[in-house]
Every structure is written in structure tokens, then in C-alpha cells.
Design a protein that fits this description.
The protein has a single domain, classed as 2-Layer Sandwich (Alpha-Beta Plaits), CATH 3.30.70.1290. The model has no long low-confidence stretch (mean pLDDT about 90). Strands 2-3-1-4 form a four-stranded antiparallel beta sheet, sandwiched between helices. By secondary structure, the chain is an alpha+beta fold. Helix 1 crosses helix 2. A hairpin with a 2-residue loop joins strand 2 and strand 3. About 35% of the residues lie in helices and about 25% in strands.
């Protein structure tokens, strides 16, 4: 096997950025992202979010396109939310767009810390706009 280290910071939002992600939904989302990532041989390094978006630091092998990983985890997580919470007012889905940034091993501690403290960053208005960017549809 060849040596590789490919790190990505991925952000995606709820449809219309509606603040619908509850703590119960978050657990289902995170579990489905972890499970699909394991299936695709991708390592989750950090994951967190707030009511309208999710952040993930992930190591994706070169044989998997980042867009393929994103499509798979977004699709599975939306499907599982709809299965687990059938009484939602609206069908759960994600915005089509997303943000994806690459970073090196030196920045790994910073990115992990930023993601793990998402709720605090948003509560204290201390977000890094560059690390929050998602082009809305």
C-alpha cells in the first residue's frame, strides 16, 4: 500500500438552513456518518454541529473522491433521520451544496479543536468564517 495522508474539513447544512437538528437527530446523523465512513475506509477525526449544519474532519483515501464520500454520508444520514423520525413536519434533507477544505497534518489539532467546540463557537460568536463557508443553493 502507498503512503498517503489526505485530510478534509467538510461542512454541510440543513435544507434552507432551517435549525432542525435536535440532540436526538444529531446522534443518528453522527452514527450514520461514522458507519458509512467505516464502510468506505475513511477515518472520522472529529464531528460536531449546531441546529443547522454539520462539521466533519475526515481522512479520505485517494481511491475515494471527496464528493463521493460527501454524497454517501449525506444521503445515508438523511435517509436514517427520515426512518427514525417519521413524524417530522417536513421530509428531512440536506442543502445540495457543501464546503470542503483540505488541510495538512500540522493543522490537524486546530481543525479538530475547532470542530469539537462548534457549539461554543456559535454561542460565543467566535466562529472562523473561512471554516464555516458553504455556498448556499
Amino acid at each position: 500500500m502507498s503512503f498517503w495522508r489526505c485530510y478534509f474539513h467538510v461542512i454541510w447544512t440543513t435544507y434552507r438552513r432551517e435549525p432542525v437538528i435536535t440532540s436526538q437527530m444529531e446522534k443518528v446523523i453522527f452514527e450514520s456518518v461514522r458507519r458509512k465512513s467505516t464502510d468506505m475506509a475513511c477515518d472520522i477525526l472529529a464531528m460536531n454541529g449546531v441546529a443547522d449544519h454539520i462539521h466533519v474532519a475526515v481522512s479520505i483515501p485517494p481511491k475515494v473522491a471527496a464528493a463521493e464520500w460527501i454524497r454517501n454520508v449525506k444521503g445515508l444520514s438523511a435517509h436514517e433521520i427520515n426512518q427514525m423520525f417519521p413524524n417530522l413536519d417536513t421530509h428531512s434533507r440536506w442543502q445540495n451544496s457543501y464546503g470542503v477544505l483540505t488541510f495538512g497534518a500540522k493543522n490537524l489539532p486546530f481543525v479538530i479543536d475547532y470542530i469539537e467546540n462548534q457549539k461554543a463557537h456559535h454561542n460565543h460568536h467566535s466562529i472562523e468564517p473561512y471554516l464555516e463557508r458553504v455556498d448556499d443553493d
